[in-house]
Amino acid sequence: MEKRNLTLLTDLYQLTMMQGYYKNDTNNHEVVFDLFYRSNPSKNGYAICAGLEQAIDYIQNLNFNDADIKYLDSLNLFQKDFLEYLRGFRFTGDIYAIPEGTVVFPMEPLLRVKAPIFEAQFVETALLNIINHQSLIATKAARVVKAAEGDPVLEFGLRRAQGPDAGIYGARAAIIGGCAGTSNVLTGQMFDVPVSGTHAHSWVMSFDEEIEAFRAYAKLFPEKCILLVDTYDTLESGVPNAIKVFDEMKKEGLPMTFYGIRLDSGDLAYLSKKARAMLDAAGYKDAIISASCDLDEMLIADLKRQGAQITLWGVGTNMITSSDCPSFGGIYKLAAELHKDGEEIPKIKISDNPEKVTNPGVKKVVRVYDKATKKVTADIIALEHEQFNEEEELILYAANARWKKIKLRANSYTLRELLVPVFKAGQKVYESPNTMSIKAYAKEELDTLWEEYKRLVNPQIMQVVLSDKLYALREKMLENYKRD
Amino acid sequence: MEKRNLTLLTDLYQLTMMQGYYKNDTNNHEVVFDLFYRSNPSKNGYAICAGLEQAIDYIQNLNFNDADIKYLDSLNLFQKDFLEYLRGFRFTGDIYAIPEGTVVFPMEPLLRVKAPIFEAQFVETALLNIINHQSLIATKAARVVKAAEGDPVLEFGLRRAQGPDAGIYGARAAIIGGCAGTSNVLTGQMFDVPVSGTHAHSWVMSFDEEIEAFRAYAKLFPEKCILLVDTYDTLESGVPNAIKVFDEMKKEGLPMTFYGIRLDSGDLAYLSKKARAMLDAAGYKDAIISASCDLDEMLIADLKRQGAQITLWGVGTNMITSSDCPSFGGIYKLAAELHKDGEEIPKIKISDNPEKVTNPGVKKVVRVYDKATKKVTADIIALEHEQFNEEEELILYAANARWKKIKLRANSYTLRELLVPVFKAGQKVYESPNTMSIKAYAKEELDTLWEEYKRLVNPQIMQVVLSDKLYALREKMLENYKRD
């Protein structure tokens, strides 16, 4: 696929500030920004980060072309020398990121950008747009897949997605979050992921009789034959006609490895149980019953509780828009300035709201696993240079309640640093895995969480603690601020 | 801008059905599909339709290239002759549409596609994606702009939009819905709409002192100088420092035509009143007070009720995602088949849910205005060939309550057909107006509604009635269905 130039996909104020840095000759001052978020979407217990591949593409394709410069000039805001300077713009900094598909928690830097402020500031908006969107949908999909208890979930939301990209990259993110496939053909082509779909009501309506529509479909696609049975009357017409056609298929000796029905309206619990009984009685115990009707994770969980006999779920609008929580609150905040002599000046953003105070300094995220169970015990946000030793006792203090302590015995835990280098001095040093590998990795990631953290409602909250050094730095900076 | 090939932006089932039509030799059967919706988003009293320009681009750029055919072949679902046939695919039908920016109501065809079923079926998903997205955001923006009571509203949501397109086209739709500008530079470039923005907290934090940051900014952008005053302490530091800088600007004799402050946190009602008083006391009665902090139409209306002294509103996440209702329920349903002899066979989709029964036949939408006030009285969904005469009395029966009647005297009303030709025999016959013209048109459109229909909560419901002939057709078809 050809890469899009999204250079002007930014907020105007990034460019006005850049002119400011340029004019004040501070444009080359090195800074570190963190991209992180403050709370999980949908009151979930975690998020699945996603979008890094597209973020990398964006960075690599940054380029102010003639049309861009001409357009900016037309705004009567920018000076000629600044616009000329923009022509030579490229990203020269370092980016560390948590790989896509990783389970992440609030306050953890998902990306850490170290670059001249001119560049680090500029990339803020598009990075947030890309990471926010895909992390949102990957997380929502993980919830839906969880509710389906092992049944495959298909992403069907393109027609209600917020524009083409929301459909394309939303489907990618949904696959990362655990969906088995998508109806979106372009996503299938771009990311080599399974595509899925059979027919709509209009197919049935284009024939005089429902059974003719089913017969014609079965003849064409005997190996993937899911018949939509609710165009006229699900139990009186649709299911009996489907069974007749399955009988005909069997008589012809077709393989019938993937066949069944789809319900798209009505009481899915009732209809699926009745349909199951009818299919079983006719000898089609392996016929799939799929459903797709304004579903979300709560409805699926409820249908499961009611004993609905659905084995394949098509989820559209509510997943592709994350309808209960349609935005992921990723933000991008200055964490440090780096002086020429190598000195690091940590930066903190103060707020009246204590939850909005940022963590200063160049940081990393260290995940702590229980050695025996391989489950996550906690995450530590630490300063970059800090070292931890698995052969020593580790004491963790809860971030907002330092009197709460977890003491881990030496050799009872393992550690893993989550941020990996993606760009060094503007050069890409990371290869994005293909989407299906990311999906497999995300599944492994979810296996590292105890079930309590994955509950759809009221999940257990993962401990994300500050290292002693980071905590001390933050306290000192807050104390100095108070004294001013 | 280069046009994107979105040919594979579709649901797989469109292609499996197309192979079915092709194999059954029904692919050239002419059909009519309606794109319409069943209820207004956000419980609003109307919607603003948008996205037609991009829908037209999509249709014009449809083209299965070698890579597309190769990909489809790799799915092992499609036969070679069908794939070869796809290579020659182009849209050859007619499309009628309601122009962008028009006020529309549930059940009205926003697009009417007449084409061979092979083509009409294929374009469903992308048309819905595009029209659903932009109509959603245009409608949401109209609500936000309404709440601002004449103050300009700026679209600031790119970083939280659901991917790049949601930001780009969402901002376009927000402008159509009434926003004065957007922070999104790419949207500004692509659609020649005003872009806006000054600086962020990081600008202030990159200086040792807040006042230095303000001074540097004012020096660079004296003609558009909105200073963000909440980085440290709005009333103790931000506003006093802004006033000092305004004093310096005045002393230097700068024009000061567009200057002021921005609040981005805290109690906006309280802070804006205090800031207003401080600015006024310093002689800056025309200084703008802008605000941007998780706003939506309800919060803005509430701030207005509290007497907040905000005169410019920046609205991000909640508008760009339409957070309370993040999808627009546009659907695409078969309305008729056209036989070779010219006979029209109306089609109806039956549902257990009476609200989901479709309106059969080839239809048009006739808007009825009161001649004296020029306000909309009602809309009529009628059959295409029906004629109405303004010189005759007009009797309208409420759609779901035929006993409710509106009688309009001859010459007391005027009529307007909303659907206009966009494609004829595959040729584009419509020029999209530029975005700012659509915005101006949408404003005129909103002026044709009484205030009661524009209330944010519990609006009056516009009467959308069926013509007698359409009503009779529908009843007859339902009656025939019942007898089967």
UniProtKB/TrEMBL annotation, chains A, B:
Q: Which residues form the Nicotinate/nicotinamide phosphoribosyltransferase domain?
A: 154-358
Entry GO terms, CC: cytosol
* Record PTM: Transiently phosphorylated on a His residue during the reaction cycle. Phosphorylation strongly increases the affinity for substrates and increases the rate of nicotinate D-ribonucleotide production. Dephosphorylation regenerates the low-affinity form of the enzyme, leading to product release.
Residue stretches making up the Nicotinate phosphoribosyltransferase N-terminal domain: 8-132
Q: Which InterPro entries match?
A: Aldolase_TIM, N/Namide_PRibTrfase, NAPRTase_C, NAPRTase_N, Nic_PRibTrfase-Fam, Nic_PRibTrfase_pncB, Nicotinate_pribotase-like_C
One of this protein's Pfam families, by short name?
A: NAPRTase
Q: What are the Nicotinate phosphoribosyltransferase C-terminal domain coordinates in residue numbering?
A: 363-473
The record's family statement is:
Belongs to the NAPRTase family.
Name listed for the protein in its UniProt record: Nicotinate phosphoribosyltransferase
Organism lineage: Bacteria, Bacillati, Bacillota, Clostridia, Lachnospirales
